[in-house]
Amino acid sequence: MSGHVRHLYVHLPFCAHRCGYCDFVTVVGREGQHGRYVDALLAELELERGVFAERIETVFLGGGTPTFTEGDGLRRLLAALPSAEEVTVEANPETVTPSLARLLREAGVTRVSLGAQSFQPDLLRVLERRASPDSVRRAFYHLRDANFDNISLDLLHGIPGQSASALEHDIDEALALGPEHVSYYELEAKPGTRFAHAHGAELARQADAMEDYFELVVERLTEAGYRWYETANFCVAAEHAGGRDLRARHNLAYWLGRDYLGLGIGAVSTLGSERRRNTPRLEAYVTSLARRVAPPRDVERLDEGIRAQERVMLGLRLDTGLPLAAASRAIDTAALGRLERLGLATLRAQRDGRGTLLLTPRGRRLGGAVTVELLA
Ligand SMILES: C[S@@+](CC[C@H](N)C(=O)[O-])C[C@H]1O[C@@H](n2cnc3c(N)ncnc32)[C@H](O)[C@@H]1O
Ligand code: SF4
To answer: Distance (Å, rounded) from C-alpha 347 to C-alpha 355?
Structure first.
C-alpha cells in the first residue's frame, strides 16, 4: 500500500422495503444478487488498493440496510476488508438477531449504528418502518449481549404528527438504553417525494417549532452527560466514559475534510482535488466490476476554493470549531463581525496568535443558514 487514505466507506444498498422518507441509494430485495454485489465490492477494493495508507483508521458499512445483506456475503465482505481501529455497521433493528450480533462482533466490527428513529408505534407507522419499539430495544440488548460497547442510536425529530411530549418520550426511551452515541436528525422530506406529498401540510405546520424541538433534544442529552460534539451528533462525554473519546471517528474524518474512499453503488470518494460518485445503477456497477473495470462514475474537480468552503461548512458543525488558518480565504470577515454581534459566532484566539472560529449554541442550532452567511 502506498497512498494516504485512512477512511473507507462501503455501501450496502439492499433493504427489505423502501421507507417513504428515505432518499438514499437503496435497492429493495434482490436476495439472489447480494453475493454478486459483494464480489463487485471486493473487485472495486482490489482496483483501489493503491490509495490506502499503511494503516486504515476507520471503515464504515452504510446503506441501505447492511444487516439485510445475506449472511454469507456479509461475512465474506467483512473478512476481506482491511482491518481498522473503528469498524462501524449500520443496522436496522428488525434484522438484529443474537446470531447476527455475534457474526458482526466476531468479524471485527467495533461499533453498531442502530436505526431506531422513534419509540412511538404511530410515528414508526408514519415513517413506514418495519421495527416496533420492542424490536428496537431487543436489538439493542442483543448487541450488548454480543459485547458491543459502542452502540449508536439514530433518531428523528420533525416526524409528521410528533408532539413535544412524544419527542420527550423518545428521548427518555433512548436514554434508558444508555447508548454511547446518539445521532438526532431533523427529518428531511425531499420535495416531490411520495412522503412530502402525503405529509406536506403537517410538515409546513410543524416547521416553526423545529428550533424549539432541537433545543429540547440538545438540553435533555447534554443534561444527561452527552457531549453535543456535532450539529446532529452526541456521545457520552469522556468524563462519564472513563476517558474514552466516543465521537464517531469515521464521520469526524468527513467533518474535518479528510480524504476517504467509497465503494459501491452511489458511493462518493474525495481524493485530493477529485470527487467521484459511482453510478447508482446496480446492474451497470456489477457488470463493470465482473470485468475488473472501474464502474461508471461522475468525476468533479475540486479546486482549493471549493475545498475551503466545504471545510467551513463542515468544520463549523463541530464543537471544536474551525481553525481559521484552514479556511480563512473562504470567510467573509464583514459577515463574521455581524454574526458575532448577533451572538451567533465567536472567534477564540489561540496562543500562536491564530484563531478558531466557533458557532455559539444558538448559531449551531440554526446550523447551515449561519454558515452560508459566513462564506465569502
Ligand atoms: C442511510 S440510513 C440507513 C440506516 C438504516 N437502513 C435504517 O433505516 O435504520 C441512516 C440514517 O439516516 C437517517 N435518515 C434517512 N432518511 C432521512 C431523512 N429523509 N431525513 C433525515 N434523516 C434521514 C435515518 O435516521 C437513518 O437511520
Ligand atoms: S431501511 Fe433505511 S436505507 Fe432502507 S429505505 Fe428505510 S431508511 Fe432507507
So the answer is: 6
Q: What is the DSSP string of 3-50?
A: S-B-EEEEEE-EESS--TT--S--EE--GGGHHHHHHHHHHHHHHHGG
Who has greater pLDDT, 259 or 21? 259
Q: Ligand 1 pocket: which residues have CB below 6 Å? A: 21-24, 62-63, 65, 90, 92, 115, 117, 154, 156, 185, 187-188
Burial label, 230 (beta-carbon count in 10 A; 0-12, 13-18, 19+): buried
Query: Each residue of 138-166: pLDDT tens digit?
Result: 999 999 999 999 999 999 999 999 999 99
Task: Give yes or no for residue 272 having a pLDDT over 80.
Answer: yes
Dist. CA 262–CA 152, nearest whole Å: 21
Ligand 2 contact, 66 CB (< 6 A):
no
Cβ neighbors of 73 (< 8 A, separation 6 or more) are: 34, 35, 37, 38
Nearest residue to 150 (alpha-carbon basis) of 199, 111, 191: 111
Kindly state the cell numbers that stand for 56. Answer: 486504515
Give 276's strand partners: 269, 299
Positive/negative CA dihedral, 210, 180, 14, 299: positive
CB environment 307-326: b (16+ within 10 A), e (fewer): bbbbbbbbbbbbeebbebeb
Query: For residue 153, which of 174, 122, 132, 176 has the smallest C-alpha distance?
Result: 174
Q: Can you tell me which residue has the cell 458499512?
A: 61
- What mean pLDDT is reported for the chain? 93
Q: How far is the CA of 116 from the centre of ligand 1 (A)?
A: 9
- DSSP for 330-370, written as a single string: GB-HHHHHHHHHTTSEEEEE-TTS-EEEEE-HHHHHHTHHH
* Helix axes of 71-80 and 34-48: crossing angle, nearest 10 degrees: 10
The pLDDT tens digits of the residues spanning 167-199 come to 999 999 999 999 999 999 999 888 878 888 888
Question: Residue 89 C-alpha to ligand 2 middle, in angstroms?
Answer: 14
Cell of 11: 455501501
For residues 294 and 44, the answer to whether their CB atoms sit within 8 Å is: yes
Put simply, whether the predicted model's pTM sits higher than 0.90 gets the answer yes
| Number of CB atoms found within 10 A of residue 234's CB | 28
